[in-house]
Specification:
Order of helices and strands: HHHHHHHHHHHHHHH
Strand content: under 5%
Radius of gyration: 22 Å
Length: about 325
């Protein structure tokens, strides 16, 4: 930073611009809304409704369905943020939280379609294959993660009530149970609308400042590593490995940039010029791996809970490999 002060300043401003112009307007509303939905008990309502679906498929309580939906719609790190909130309210246990974070940390559709497909590849027809590989791979990770910590008990399991005469009591309808859960959650929270809105905005702003700081930090780190020649050395090693397995060597640059940051890796994949199928495959890997910048954001959220980072890291690695494989398998059906 002392040797390259101008480049340090420019890279820092570039990271700040990405945060202010892209991440802040995209993520801040979702963070505020998620806090409000938790305070009003609406998350608990949908949790009860989705319980029969989520438990047999993903070994998660129904409330995890809300995290899956919000995570896939709004992108990283919303899934980790919501999971941390559920952990704090003791609505999921550690094993369930680690399963949730593992497969709800995905790119949002707006970034995948608008930025990557249209902006970087300049080919909107690439969007279906990228979406199928990325989100399909995420769901496959969810199915695989159901075996994670398999001996851990499920949260919120209740035995069927039995009356004194030995007959099972008639269970209320799923809707009435959901409404009751929402009402109880609202009473337990107890905050008025004004206070709830204020707390939601303050919590969202604190998280956005952390996200912005990490984006600026990794922008400077990437610039310094590039000027120090370390990025080129890493790319050369990856080119050699790609040559051994038959992948085009120019894709190594996208792989190295994507290792650190999603936007840089996706942009490099779109301009690699090695053939659209191979470029889409490396872009799917970049989107699914998430970059160390996203990993740092998730780790900062998990540090406030008892959730471990290692299952998330392993899931990202597997997700990236699955997404790449799906691009090659589905190219004949969904490729442009």
């Amino acid at each position: 930073m002392t040797v390259f002060p101008t480049e340090t300043l420019h890279s820092s401003l570039r990271g700040l611009s990405i945060w202010w112009e892209v991440l802040f307007p995209a993520l801040f509303p979702f963070f505020v809304i998620s806090e409000l939905l938790l305070g009003f008990g609406i998350v608990h309502f949908f949790g009860k409704l989705l319980d029969p679906l989520m438990r047999p498929i993903f070994r998660l309580p129904g409330i995890g369905g809300f995290v899956v939906t919000m995570g896939y719609i709004s992108g990283y790190p919303v899934g980790a943020k919501l999971t941390a909130q559920l952990i704090e309210q003791r609505l999921v246990n550690r094993a369930e939280g680690e399963r949730l974070v593992a497969f709800t940390t995905t790119s949002d559709p707006i970034f995948l379609i608008g930025a990557v497909s249209v902006g970087f590849f300049q080919n909107v027809a690439i969007a279906p294959i990228l979406a199928a590989a990325h989100y399909g791979g995420g769901l496959l990770i969810g199915l695989l993660m159901r075996f994670h910590d398999r001996h851990a008990p499920s949260s919120g399991t209740k035995k069927t009530a039995i009356s004194r005469d030995g007959f099972r009591k008639r269970r209320p309808s799923r809707i009435s149970e959901a409404l009751k859960a929402m009402h109880e959650a609202r009473l337990l929270d107890g905050r008025r609308l004004g206070r709830l809105l204020q707390d939601s905005i303050q919590s969202a702003l604190r998280l956005m400042i952390v996200v912005g700081g990490l984006v600026v930090f990794f922008s400077v780190v990437m610039e310094m590593l590039t000027h120090a020649g370390i990025i080129e050395a890493m790319a050369e090693v990856l080119r050699f490995l790609f040559g051994l397995i038959g992948l085009p060597k120019p894709l190594a640059d996208a792989g190295i940039f994507g290792l650190f940051e999603v936007t840089l890796g996706s942009r490099s994949a779109g301009t690699a010029g090695t053939g659209l199928m191979h470029q889409a495959a490396i872009a799917a890997w970049v989107l699914s791996w998430g970059g160390l910048s996203v990993h740092a954001q998730v780790a900062s959220l998990l540090s406030k809970t008892d959730l471990r980072y290692r299952p998330f890291f392993i899931a990202r690695m597997i997700h990236g490999l699955i997404a790449m494989t799906l691009v090659y398998l589905l190219w004949g059906w969904l490729g442009p």
